UniProtKB/TrEMBL annotation:
It comes from the Bacteria. Gene3D superfamilies: MFS general substrate transporter like domains (1.20.1250.20). This is Major facilitator superfamily MFS_1. The chain crosses the membrane at residues 12-33, 49-68, 80-99, 105-128, 140-163, 169-193, 237-260, 272-290, 302-320, 326-348, 360-382, 388-407. The keyword Transmembrane applies. It is a multi-pass membrane protein. GO terms for molecular function: transmembrane transporter activity. It comes from Halothermothrix orenii (strain H 168 / OCM 544 / DSM 9562).
Length: 421
Protein backbone atom coordinates (compact mmCIF):
# COMPACT_ATOMS: atom_id res chain seq x y z
CA UNK A 1 0.00 0.00 0.00
CA UNK A 2 1.29 3.45 -0.91
CA UNK A 3 0.15 5.25 2.24
CA UNK A 4 -1.59 3.30 5.01
CA UNK A 5 -3.00 6.43 6.61
CA UNK A 6 -4.71 7.40 3.37
CA UNK A 7 -5.97 3.85 2.81
CA UNK A 8 -7.55 3.71 6.27
CA UNK A 9 -9.06 7.19 5.89
CA UNK A 10 -10.46 6.14 2.51
CA UNK A 11 -11.98 2.98 3.99
CA UNK A 12 -13.38 4.97 6.92
CA UNK A 13 -15.38 7.12 4.50
CA UNK A 14 -17.09 3.91 3.39
CA UNK A 15 -17.83 3.24 7.08
CA UNK A 16 -19.33 6.75 7.28
CA UNK A 17 -21.54 6.97 4.21
CA UNK A 18 -22.67 3.35 4.30
CA UNK A 19 -25.03 4.43 7.07
CA UNK A 20 -27.03 6.08 4.28
CA UNK A 21 -26.99 2.85 2.27
CA UNK A 22 -28.25 0.76 5.19
CA UNK A 23 -30.67 2.91 7.19
CA UNK A 24 -31.90 5.22 4.42
CA UNK A 25 -31.56 3.42 1.11
CA UNK A 26 -32.09 -0.21 2.06
CA UNK A 27 -33.94 -0.56 5.35
CA UNK A 28 -35.68 2.03 7.53
CA UNK A 29 -36.74 4.63 4.95
CA UNK A 30 -38.42 2.13 2.57
CA UNK A 31 -40.58 0.89 5.47
CA UNK A 32 -41.30 4.47 6.60
CA UNK A 33 -42.10 5.42 3.00
CA UNK A 34 -44.73 2.70 2.63
CA UNK A 35 -46.25 2.87 6.13
CA UNK A 36 -46.14 6.63 6.76
CA UNK A 37 -45.19 8.80 3.79
CA UNK A 38 -47.29 6.81 1.30
CA UNK A 39 -50.07 5.84 3.70
CA UNK A 40 -53.48 5.91 2.06
CA UNK A 41 -52.41 4.59 -1.35
CA UNK A 42 -52.38 0.91 -2.48
CA UNK A 43 -49.36 -1.14 -1.43
CA UNK A 44 -48.21 -1.94 -4.95
CA UNK A 45 -48.34 1.75 -5.88
CA UNK A 46 -46.24 2.69 -2.84
CA UNK A 47 -43.63 0.17 -4.01
CA UNK A 48 -43.79 1.50 -7.57
CA UNK A 49 -43.48 5.13 -6.44
CA UNK A 50 -40.41 4.17 -4.42
CA UNK A 51 -38.93 2.54 -7.53
CA UNK A 52 -39.63 5.62 -9.63
CA UNK A 53 -38.02 7.76 -6.91
CA UNK A 54 -34.88 5.63 -7.18
CA UNK A 55 -34.90 6.02 -10.96
CA UNK A 56 -35.25 9.81 -10.86
CA UNK A 57 -32.44 10.16 -8.34
CA UNK A 58 -30.07 8.01 -10.38
CA UNK A 59 -31.00 9.81 -13.61
CA UNK A 60 -30.12 13.18 -12.07
CA UNK A 61 -26.77 12.00 -10.75
CA UNK A 62 -26.00 10.30 -14.07
CA UNK A 63 -26.58 13.56 -15.94
CA UNK A 64 -24.52 15.53 -13.42
CA UNK A 65 -21.63 13.07 -13.25
CA UNK A 66 -19.80 14.10 -16.46
CA UNK A 67 -19.80 17.70 -15.23
CA UNK A 68 -18.63 16.66 -11.78
CA UNK A 69 -15.90 14.51 -13.25
CA UNK A 70 -14.63 17.45 -15.28
CA UNK A 71 -14.72 19.76 -12.27
CA UNK A 72 -12.79 17.26 -10.18
CA UNK A 73 -10.26 16.52 -12.89
CA UNK A 74 -9.53 20.00 -14.19
CA UNK A 75 -9.48 21.63 -10.78
CA UNK A 76 -7.71 18.66 -9.20
CA UNK A 77 -10.08 19.08 -6.28
CA UNK A 78 -11.51 15.61 -5.87
CA UNK A 79 -11.36 15.94 -2.11
CA UNK A 80 -13.24 19.25 -2.17
CA UNK A 81 -16.04 17.84 -4.30
CA UNK A 82 -16.20 14.73 -2.14
CA UNK A 83 -16.90 17.09 0.78
CA UNK A 84 -19.53 19.09 -1.11
CA UNK A 85 -21.54 16.04 -2.10
CA UNK A 86 -21.17 14.40 1.28
CA UNK A 87 -22.59 17.52 2.94
CA UNK A 88 -25.44 17.58 0.41
CA UNK A 89 -26.24 13.98 1.30
CA UNK A 90 -26.16 14.73 5.01
CA UNK A 91 -28.58 17.66 4.60
CA UNK A 92 -31.04 15.67 2.49
CA UNK A 93 -30.94 12.84 5.01
CA UNK A 94 -31.51 15.12 8.00
CA UNK A 95 -34.52 16.78 6.32
CA UNK A 96 -36.35 13.43 6.27
CA UNK A 97 -37.06 14.08 9.95
CA UNK A 98 -39.78 16.54 8.89
CA UNK A 99 -41.75 14.12 6.66
CA UNK A 100 -45.22 13.18 7.95
CA UNK A 101 -48.18 10.99 6.91
CA UNK A 102 -49.07 11.27 3.24
CA UNK A 103 -45.93 13.31 2.43
CA UNK A 104 -44.58 10.78 -0.07
CA UNK A 105 -43.66 13.52 -2.57
CA UNK A 106 -41.67 15.36 0.11
CA UNK A 107 -40.06 12.09 1.21
CA UNK A 108 -39.10 11.38 -2.40
CA UNK A 109 -37.60 14.85 -2.85
CA UNK A 110 -35.50 14.67 0.33
CA UNK A 111 -34.38 11.14 -0.50
CA UNK A 112 -33.37 12.19 -4.02
CA UNK A 113 -31.34 15.06 -2.52
CA UNK A 114 -29.60 12.65 -0.15
CA UNK A 115 -29.10 10.10 -2.90
CA UNK A 116 -27.47 12.68 -5.17
CA UNK A 117 -25.06 13.53 -2.36
CA UNK A 118 -24.36 9.86 -1.64
CA UNK A 119 -23.86 8.76 -5.25
CA UNK A 120 -22.15 11.96 -6.36
CA UNK A 121 -19.66 11.63 -3.52
CA UNK A 122 -18.95 8.06 -4.53
CA UNK A 123 -17.90 9.21 -8.02
CA UNK A 124 -15.00 11.01 -6.37
CA UNK A 125 -14.50 8.36 -3.68
CA UNK A 126 -14.01 5.55 -6.22
CA UNK A 127 -11.54 7.63 -8.22
CA UNK A 128 -9.17 7.77 -5.23
CA UNK A 129 -8.51 4.00 -5.36
CA UNK A 130 -5.65 4.14 -7.91
CA UNK A 131 -4.16 7.12 -6.04
CA UNK A 132 -3.85 5.34 -2.71
CA UNK A 133 -3.26 1.70 -3.70
CA UNK A 134 -0.62 -0.24 -5.61
CA UNK A 135 -2.08 -2.19 -8.52
CA UNK A 136 -1.34 -5.60 -6.99
CA UNK A 137 -3.17 -4.59 -3.78
CA UNK A 138 -6.31 -3.17 -5.39
CA UNK A 139 -8.37 -6.30 -4.69
CA UNK A 140 -7.56 -6.11 -0.98
CA UNK A 141 -7.89 -2.33 -0.58
CA UNK A 142 -11.15 -2.29 -2.51
CA UNK A 143 -12.51 -5.12 -0.37
CA UNK A 144 -11.28 -3.34 2.79
CA UNK A 145 -13.43 -0.35 1.87
CA UNK A 146 -16.51 -2.51 1.37
CA UNK A 147 -15.87 -4.39 4.61
CA UNK A 148 -15.54 -1.12 6.54
CA UNK A 149 -18.79 0.00 4.95
CA UNK A 150 -20.58 -3.14 6.04
CA UNK A 151 -19.31 -2.78 9.59
CA UNK A 152 -20.05 0.94 9.94
CA UNK A 153 -23.40 0.83 8.20
CA UNK A 154 -24.36 -2.30 10.10
CA UNK A 155 -23.37 -0.91 13.48
CA UNK A 156 -25.53 2.20 13.14
CA UNK A 157 -28.37 0.09 11.74
CA UNK A 158 -28.15 -2.10 14.86
CA UNK A 159 -28.38 0.97 17.09
CA UNK A 160 -31.34 2.24 15.09
CA UNK A 161 -33.06 -1.15 15.23
CA UNK A 162 -32.82 -1.13 19.03
CA UNK A 163 -34.04 2.47 19.14
CA UNK A 164 -37.02 1.76 16.87
CA UNK A 165 -37.93 -1.46 18.70
CA UNK A 166 -37.48 0.02 22.20
CA UNK A 167 -37.96 3.81 21.84
CA UNK A 168 -38.58 4.26 25.57
CA UNK A 169 -34.97 3.22 26.28
CA UNK A 170 -33.89 6.34 24.41
CA UNK A 171 -36.46 8.62 26.00
CA UNK A 172 -38.62 8.67 22.86
CA UNK A 173 -42.41 8.55 22.84
CA UNK A 174 -43.05 6.23 19.89
CA UNK A 175 -41.65 4.07 17.12
CA UNK A 176 -42.41 6.88 14.67
CA UNK A 177 -40.34 9.35 16.70
CA UNK A 178 -37.48 6.84 16.88
CA UNK A 179 -37.65 6.28 13.13
CA UNK A 180 -37.33 10.00 12.47
CA UNK A 181 -34.40 10.29 14.89
CA UNK A 182 -32.73 7.42 13.02
CA UNK A 183 -32.64 9.62 9.92
CA UNK A 184 -30.85 12.36 11.86
CA UNK A 185 -28.41 9.80 13.29
CA UNK A 186 -27.31 8.88 9.77
CA UNK A 187 -26.46 12.50 8.95
CA UNK A 188 -24.45 12.90 12.16
CA UNK A 189 -22.64 9.56 11.71
CA UNK A 190 -21.80 10.40 8.11
CA UNK A 191 -20.34 13.75 9.14
CA UNK A 192 -18.19 12.55 12.04
CA UNK A 193 -16.54 9.59 10.30
CA UNK A 194 -15.95 11.46 7.04
CA UNK A 195 -13.58 13.92 8.69
CA UNK A 196 -10.39 11.79 8.36
CA UNK A 197 -10.99 11.37 4.61
CA UNK A 198 -11.67 15.08 4.20
CA UNK A 199 -8.34 15.80 5.88
CA UNK A 200 -6.11 12.98 4.63
CA UNK A 201 -6.96 11.98 1.05
CA UNK A 202 -4.62 13.46 -1.59
CA UNK A 203 -5.72 16.65 -3.34
CA UNK A 204 -2.96 17.91 -5.67
CA UNK A 205 -2.77 21.50 -6.82
CA UNK A 206 -4.03 22.54 -10.24
CA UNK A 207 -3.54 25.27 -12.79
CA UNK A 208 -7.21 25.08 -13.87
CA UNK A 209 -9.11 26.39 -10.86
CA UNK A 210 -10.96 29.30 -12.52
CA UNK A 211 -12.98 27.68 -15.32
CA UNK A 212 -16.60 28.79 -15.65
CA UNK A 213 -19.52 26.42 -15.11
CA UNK A 214 -20.29 26.53 -18.84
CA UNK A 215 -16.75 25.41 -19.62
CA UNK A 216 -16.98 22.61 -17.06
CA UNK A 217 -20.24 21.41 -18.65
CA UNK A 218 -18.73 21.52 -22.13
CA UNK A 219 -15.51 19.87 -20.97
CA UNK A 220 -17.39 17.20 -19.04
CA UNK A 221 -19.56 15.97 -21.88
CA UNK A 222 -16.80 16.39 -24.45
CA UNK A 223 -14.52 14.27 -22.31
CA UNK A 224 -17.29 11.71 -21.77
CA UNK A 225 -17.60 11.29 -25.53
CA UNK A 226 -13.82 11.16 -25.92
CA UNK A 227 -13.43 8.62 -23.11
CA UNK A 228 -16.21 6.53 -24.61
CA UNK A 229 -14.23 6.36 -27.86
CA UNK A 230 -10.95 5.70 -26.00
CA UNK A 231 -12.36 2.87 -23.90
CA UNK A 232 -13.76 1.14 -26.96
CA UNK A 233 -10.17 0.83 -28.23
CA UNK A 234 -9.54 -1.51 -25.29
CA UNK A 235 -11.82 -4.29 -26.47
CA UNK A 236 -11.79 -6.51 -23.38
CA UNK A 237 -12.20 -3.58 -20.99
CA UNK A 238 -15.20 -2.44 -23.04
CA UNK A 239 -16.72 -5.93 -23.00
CA UNK A 240 -16.32 -6.06 -19.21
CA UNK A 241 -18.00 -2.67 -18.84
CA UNK A 242 -21.03 -3.91 -20.79
CA UNK A 243 -21.31 -6.94 -18.51
CA UNK A 244 -20.82 -4.81 -15.40
CA UNK A 245 -23.51 -2.32 -16.40
CA UNK A 246 -26.04 -5.12 -16.72
CA UNK A 247 -25.36 -7.21 -13.61
CA UNK A 248 -24.62 -4.21 -11.39
CA UNK A 249 -28.07 -2.85 -12.27
CA UNK A 250 -29.49 -6.09 -10.88
CA UNK A 251 -27.43 -5.78 -7.70
CA UNK A 252 -28.49 -2.17 -7.22
CA UNK A 253 -32.15 -3.01 -7.74
CA UNK A 254 -32.05 -5.67 -5.03
CA UNK A 255 -30.38 -3.23 -2.63
CA UNK A 256 -32.95 -0.53 -3.32
CA UNK A 257 -36.16 -2.53 -3.61
CA UNK A 258 -35.85 -5.60 -1.34
CA UNK A 259 -37.18 -4.05 1.88
CA UNK A 260 -40.23 -2.32 0.43
CA UNK A 261 -40.99 -5.50 -1.54
CA UNK A 262 -40.82 -7.52 1.68
CA UNK A 263 -43.11 -5.01 3.37
CA UNK A 264 -45.61 -5.24 0.50
CA UNK A 265 -45.95 -9.01 0.89
CA UNK A 266 -46.54 -8.68 4.63
CA UNK A 267 -43.20 -9.17 6.41
CA UNK A 268 -42.94 -7.25 9.69
CA UNK A 269 -40.69 -4.27 10.33
CA UNK A 270 -38.52 -5.97 12.94
CA UNK A 271 -37.84 -8.93 10.65
CA UNK A 272 -37.05 -6.66 7.72
CA UNK A 273 -34.57 -4.52 9.66
CA UNK A 274 -33.09 -7.52 11.45
CA UNK A 275 -32.56 -9.43 8.21
CA UNK A 276 -30.88 -6.45 6.56
CA UNK A 277 -28.69 -6.17 9.64
CA UNK A 278 -27.72 -9.80 9.07
CA UNK A 279 -26.76 -8.83 5.52
CA UNK A 280 -24.39 -6.22 6.87
CA UNK A 281 -22.58 -8.41 9.36
CA UNK A 282 -22.38 -11.45 7.09
CA UNK A 283 -20.98 -9.07 4.49
CA UNK A 284 -18.06 -7.92 6.67
CA UNK A 285 -15.96 -11.12 6.54
CA UNK A 286 -17.34 -12.14 3.16
CA UNK A 287 -16.21 -8.94 1.43
CA UNK A 288 -12.67 -9.57 2.67
CA UNK A 289 -12.89 -13.29 1.82
CA UNK A 290 -13.97 -12.48 -1.71
CA UNK A 291 -10.95 -10.20 -2.00
CA UNK A 292 -8.70 -13.12 -1.07
CA UNK A 293 -10.77 -15.47 -3.25
CA UNK A 294 -10.14 -13.19 -6.21
CA UNK A 295 -6.40 -13.41 -5.59
CA UNK A 296 -6.56 -17.22 -5.35
CA UNK A 297 -8.94 -18.40 -8.10
CA UNK A 298 -9.08 -15.28 -10.24
CA UNK A 299 -11.22 -12.18 -9.98
CA UNK A 300 -13.49 -13.18 -12.86
CA UNK A 301 -14.33 -16.56 -11.33
CA UNK A 302 -15.09 -14.88 -8.01
CA UNK A 303 -17.57 -12.57 -9.74
CA UNK A 304 -19.16 -15.55 -11.52
CA UNK A 305 -19.80 -17.26 -8.19
CA UNK A 306 -21.41 -14.13 -6.77
CA UNK A 307 -23.66 -13.64 -9.81
CA UNK A 308 -24.90 -17.23 -9.78
CA UNK A 309 -25.91 -16.79 -6.13
CA UNK A 310 -27.67 -13.52 -7.01
CA UNK A 311 -29.60 -15.32 -9.74
CA UNK A 312 -30.76 -17.90 -7.20
CA UNK A 313 -31.80 -15.09 -4.83
CA UNK A 314 -34.05 -13.40 -7.38
CA UNK A 315 -35.77 -16.63 -8.39
CA UNK A 316 -36.35 -17.61 -4.76
CA UNK A 317 -37.56 -14.08 -4.05
CA UNK A 318 -40.44 -14.56 -6.48
CA UNK A 319 -41.77 -17.40 -4.30
CA UNK A 320 -41.02 -15.72 -0.95
CA UNK A 321 -43.93 -15.75 1.53
CA UNK A 322 -42.49 -15.85 5.06
CA UNK A 323 -40.08 -13.90 7.24
CA UNK A 324 -37.78 -16.94 7.26
CA UNK A 325 -37.50 -16.69 3.48
CA UNK A 326 -36.48 -13.04 3.77
CA UNK A 327 -33.87 -13.83 6.44
CA UNK A 328 -32.43 -16.61 4.27
CA UNK A 329 -32.17 -14.44 1.19
CA UNK A 330 -30.74 -11.54 3.22
CA UNK A 331 -27.97 -13.84 4.44
CA UNK A 332 -27.18 -14.90 0.88
CA UNK A 333 -27.06 -11.28 -0.27
CA UNK A 334 -24.61 -10.53 2.53
CA UNK A 335 -22.49 -13.43 1.35
CA UNK A 336 -21.92 -11.94 -2.11
CA UNK A 337 -22.87 -8.26 -2.21
CA UNK A 338 -19.63 -6.64 -1.09
CA UNK A 339 -17.51 -9.24 -2.84
CA UNK A 340 -19.20 -8.79 -6.21
CA UNK A 341 -18.84 -5.02 -6.12
CA UNK A 342 -15.30 -4.99 -4.75
CA UNK A 343 -14.02 -7.56 -7.25
CA UNK A 344 -15.73 -5.72 -10.10
CA UNK A 345 -14.05 -2.47 -9.12
CA UNK A 346 -10.62 -4.07 -8.82
CA UNK A 347 -11.00 -6.13 -12.02
CA UNK A 348 -11.82 -2.96 -13.93
CA UNK A 349 -8.81 -1.24 -12.34
CA UNK A 350 -6.50 -4.07 -13.42
CA UNK A 351 -7.42 -3.53 -17.10
CA UNK A 352 -7.13 0.27 -17.04
CA UNK A 353 -3.97 1.82 -18.59
CA UNK A 354 -1.91 3.58 -15.90
CA UNK A 355 -1.89 6.88 -17.77
CA UNK A 356 -5.70 6.88 -18.01
CA UNK A 357 -6.76 5.87 -14.49
CA UNK A 358 -8.53 9.11 -13.59
CA UNK A 359 -10.26 9.33 -16.98
CA UNK A 360 -11.40 5.70 -17.07
CA UNK A 361 -12.41 5.48 -13.41
CA UNK A 362 -14.43 8.64 -13.89
CA UNK A 363 -16.21 6.97 -16.79
CA UNK A 364 -16.71 3.85 -14.65
CA UNK A 365 -18.52 5.86 -12.01
CA UNK A 366 -20.53 7.92 -14.49
CA UNK A 367 -21.59 5.06 -16.73
CA UNK A 368 -22.65 2.89 -13.80
CA UNK A 369 -25.06 5.65 -12.76
CA UNK A 370 -26.76 5.57 -16.16
CA UNK A 371 -26.88 1.78 -16.04
CA UNK A 372 -28.54 1.84 -12.59
CA UNK A 373 -31.63 3.61 -13.92
CA UNK A 374 -33.18 0.63 -15.70
CA UNK A 375 -33.59 -1.90 -12.88
CA UNK A 376 -35.69 0.08 -10.38
CA UNK A 377 -37.78 1.50 -13.24
CA UNK A 378 -38.48 -1.97 -14.63
CA UNK A 379 -39.31 -3.29 -11.16
CA UNK A 380 -41.68 -0.36 -10.52
CA UNK A 381 -43.35 -0.51 -13.93
CA UNK A 382 -43.97 -4.26 -13.81
CA UNK A 383 -45.36 -3.93 -10.27
CA UNK A 384 -47.68 -1.09 -11.27
CA UNK A 385 -48.98 -2.84 -14.39
CA UNK A 386 -49.55 -6.22 -12.70
CA UNK A 387 -50.60 -4.76 -9.30
CA UNK A 388 -48.02 -7.06 -7.67
CA UNK A 389 -44.26 -6.76 -7.35
CA UNK A 390 -43.55 -10.50 -7.57
CA UNK A 391 -43.08 -10.37 -11.33
CA UNK A 392 -40.94 -7.28 -10.76
CA UNK A 393 -38.44 -9.20 -8.65
CA UNK A 394 -38.44 -12.03 -11.19
CA UNK A 395 -37.64 -9.55 -13.97
CA UNK A 396 -34.46 -8.63 -12.09
CA UNK A 397 -33.15 -12.16 -12.75
CA UNK A 398 -32.69 -11.20 -16.40
CA UNK A 399 -29.95 -8.73 -15.43
CA UNK A 400 -27.88 -11.52 -13.87
CA UNK A 401 -28.45 -13.98 -16.72
CA UNK A 402 -27.38 -11.46 -19.35
CA UNK A 403 -24.51 -10.23 -17.16
CA UNK A 404 -23.14 -13.75 -16.72
CA UNK A 405 -23.26 -14.38 -20.46
CA UNK A 406 -21.48 -11.11 -21.25
CA UNK A 407 -18.84 -11.62 -18.55
CA UNK A 408 -18.05 -15.11 -19.86
CA UNK A 409 -16.89 -13.51 -23.12
CA UNK A 410 -14.31 -11.25 -21.45
CA UNK A 411 -10.65 -12.30 -21.76
CA UNK A 412 -9.10 -10.80 -18.62
CA UNK A 413 -5.46 -11.54 -19.44
CA UNK A 414 -5.85 -10.07 -22.90
CA UNK A 415 -7.46 -7.01 -21.33
CA UNK A 416 -4.52 -6.56 -18.96
CA UNK A 417 -2.09 -6.91 -21.85
CA UNK A 418 -4.01 -4.29 -23.83
CA UNK A 419 -3.66 -1.91 -20.88
CA UNK A 420 0.14 -2.22 -20.99
CA UNK A 421 0.44 -1.29 -24.66
Amino acid sequence: MKNKKQVYAWALYDWANSAFATTILATVLPIFYKDVAASGIPDHLATSYWGYTQTIGMLIIAILSPILGAMADYSRSKRLFLKVFAYLGMIGTGLLYFVGEGDYILASLFFILGSIGFSGGNVFYDSFLPDISDKNKMDYVSALGFAAGYLGGGLLLLINLIMISKPQLFGLSSTLAATKISFVSVAVWWFIFSLPAFKTLPSPDSQHTHLTLKKYVKAGFKRLATTFRNIRRYRELWKFLLAFWVYNDGIGTIIRMATIYGREIGIGQTDLIGALLLTQFVGIPCALLFGKLGEKIGTKKGIFIALMIYLMITIRGYYMTTAFDFWLLAGLVGLVQGGAQALSRSLYGSMVPENRTAEFFGFYGISSKFAAITGPFLFALVGQLTESSRLGILAVASFFIIGIILLSRVDIEKGRSEALK
